[in-house]
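Run log, item B.
One chain of 174 residues. Sequence copied directly from the ordering sheet:
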Amino acid sequence: MGVIMFKRIALLGLIVSSTSGIATPQKQPQQKIVAWDIHQVLCTKQGSHGYKCSPQESTFELVKELHAKGVKQVILSNISSKSFCKLSRCYPQHFKYFDLSRSFTDAEFILTRKPHGKCFKKFLKKNRATRPSDIVFFDDKLKNVKGARDQCIDGHIFCNAAQARTILNRKSLL
């Protein structure tokens, strides 16, 4: 009986010592995403249609810098999909920096628009690999920022590119 018990203890010791050198996988840090509204943030105020606006170059300088640092960027806007397609075709050199597969542009139904929770929930579903608090969102309307914050998204009122730069620097994204 003593020999069998000794063998079990010795075997258990081998198992413990052989597994102690195995590295356990470390969790990857969450990647931040910067989400931008279009009108009066990335572009000027819209005209008669959502695509009738032009890029704000100072904001797109930030977009380019973030892209160069590997920061993922998306669009989160109430612009209709059709208008966004027209806008991005007019300015392809500006919109090439965005992950459009994770972006959200859909103004088809009033309850799926910002600031409604459904809009942000649909957006978060597209970005489910990212925690809501790791999404930095810029919008020119307080009600949209509040709607984002209600879903734990890190929302900020956009005043100008210099103010956005300060926020992005504070978050170590630039």
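Observations after the first pass:
- Residues 2-19 form the longest helix (18 residues).
- The radius of gyration is 23 Å.
Flagged for discussion on Thursday.
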